Amino acid sequence: MQTATLSIPMRKSEKPRVRIRGIYATALTKIFLDNGFEIIQPSEVVAKRFSLSTVRYLSPQIDIVDKPDKHGVIIESLSEMTDRVSKILFDELLDVIVHKSKVQKGAVYKGIIYRPAPSGGYIVKLTPNLDGLLPVEEATKQSLKLGDTVLVEVKNPNSNGLPIVSMKITIPGDFAVLIPEESVRVSHKIKGGARYKLLELGKILRPDGWGIVWRTGAANAELEELQEEIKILHEQAEKLQELAENSPALVKLRNGFDIVTVEFPFMSKTKLDEIRAQVFNTVKYHHLFKTYGNNITRLVDFAEKYLSQHISIEKINNALREYFTNEILFSEGRVIKIHHIKIYGREVILGPAKIIMRKNTDTERVEYRLHRRFMPGGYYDGIGAPKEAGDYGVTIVRLFDDKLITAYFSIENDLKGIYININTPIEPGNDGFRYIDLEIDVVLTQENQVMILDSQKLERYVNEGIISQNLADFAKKRAEEYKEWLENKGVEEILGICDEVRRKLEESIETDESTESLEDQLMSG
Fold first, then answer.
1. Where are the beta strands (DSSP E) in 360-414?
2. Alpha helix positions (H), 324-468
3. What are 377-394's pLDDT values in tens digits?
4. 142-191 pLDDT, tens per residue?
5. For residue 336, which of 371, 294, 297 has the smallest C-alpha distance?
6. What is the DSSP pairing of strand 184-186 with strand 211-214?
7. Which of 100, 118, 389, 464 has the greatest CB tally within 10 Å of its CB?
8. pLDDT score of 523 more than 50
9. Computed from CA positions of residues 509, 510, 515, 516, in that sequence, does the dihedral angle turn out positive or negative?
10. CB-neighbour burial class of residue 370 (10 A; exposed 0-12, middle 13-18, buried 19+)
11. Cβ proximity of 80 and 37 under 8 Å
């Protein structure tokens, strides 16, 4: 019987080691330094700002990089450190969203070939309740059949379907990784003579049947340390093999790294701006601007690095805000998307929606009024009204507001209901607006009742470690406030806005018809 699960054999240190890269590096570096972590392998810019050493030595126990969309980070963490990291983020950032993958990267299982996969390869049962995918390119190289017991390592726990596994088991450490092929490789960050020496040393030190990949820190390690590391890794490889032989199938033999996806909504970005400003000149909306893939990101860098030496940050903020409002934000007539992101990470695109009106020129008070059409069939969630041909909606979007309001109407302009979605503050993006849906809503139903929906979900997300209790309490408080507002003057205010949108639409239709009539006359002449 299995008596223990092995761990990644990384060296312990007085302080947890974290490496940080990306647009949040300065702010997160300050947070982790203040909480007793050691920052390793910093970029030259971050090293200069915090007077840190750039010498590459031990490998990170926690690795932080930007998400592809820049609206947060992905953290790869030794499992024993993940809860501490999450607590720090919850303590610092009110609306942060934290998702830990159910499967660890690098975890090793004794699994069973369960059935062929539809796309090729095999479905491997890792535990009674967990399956993985052995890709076709690897499965075809093995003489496998259904029911075979296999030792597999998780390579990608966050694939769109099942976690991706491999029969190529690796043994990672601080300076090296043992790989199941007789070769020696060196990190591309190691150059020159150090690279040549490690290639030659690897040929001498690698155990029979194994290869070595030298990690970045190997360039600064002593020979004795490298020898000791390879010995430790080889011993763990033998322990893993012994454990596999003596354990039943469908168990985990080695822990890996937790993969934690962290979303930084607008309040988190704002707090990170404030923290970064304690270290370096930082303009307002710094981290929001950095999520854009256009010239404003370069303007931010230029303003903070050079202009701030001659102009006050306040004046720079005003100029950037004016540029952002007038040149970047959407104008009337634009068709946009609403990125409605569920707490669990699933994204729902609401739209297309057409901007009929835009109010105010101050970034923090900009309000958009959108026109949306709906397909018939079914019922509107929460309000209970049927979806019928000709139905339309007016959606009110206020930048950085924690609610999205939609009023639903029939083709005869009769109100069917109002839905107030409570969310993280609404952020503008390249093709529309985005927010995280907090799963609690306030509605005016078809029967003219004002109700709060789904408040019980928030506590479940707190218990699962996805959101903080503070965020749950904040959302509940907002729901109560918006319910009271809707019961008093809210409906009247919303309907007044909808009347303005209808008049604007009617004016545009009349203008279009007039223009077409004039064109017809000119063509006939």
1. 367-373, 392-398, 403-409
2. 456-463
3. 999 999 999 999 999 999
4. 888 999 999 999 999 976 789 999 999 999 999 999 999 999 999 999 99
5. 371
6. parallel
7. 100
8. no
9. positive
10. buried
11. no
| 3-state per-residue secondary structure call for 409-471 | ECCCCCEEEEEEEEECCCEECCCEEEEEEEEEEEEECCCCCEEEECCHHHHHHHHCCCCCHHH
* DSSP summary character for residue 188: T
| Distance of alpha carbon 484 from alpha carbon 14, whole angstroms | 53
**Please, what's the b/e burial string for 290-310 (b: 16 or more CB within 10 A of its CB; e: otherwise)?**
bbbeeebbebbeebbeebbee
Report how far residue 363's alpha carbon sits from residue 367's, in angstroms, rounded to the nearest whole number. Answer: 9
Instruction: Count CA within 13 A, CB hemisphere, residue 274.
Output: 7
- Residue 43: helix, strand or coil by DSSP? coil
CA-CA-CA-CA torsion sign (161, 162, 164, 166): negative
Evaluated on CA atoms 504, 506, 509, 515, the torsion sign reads negative
364 is written with which tokens?
């923090």
pLDDT of residue 418: 98
CA 428 to CA 327: how far, in whole Å? 13
- Global confidence as pTM: 0.92
User: What element of type H or E holds 172?
Assistant: strand 171-172
CA angle 481, 487, 493 (to 5 degrees): 90
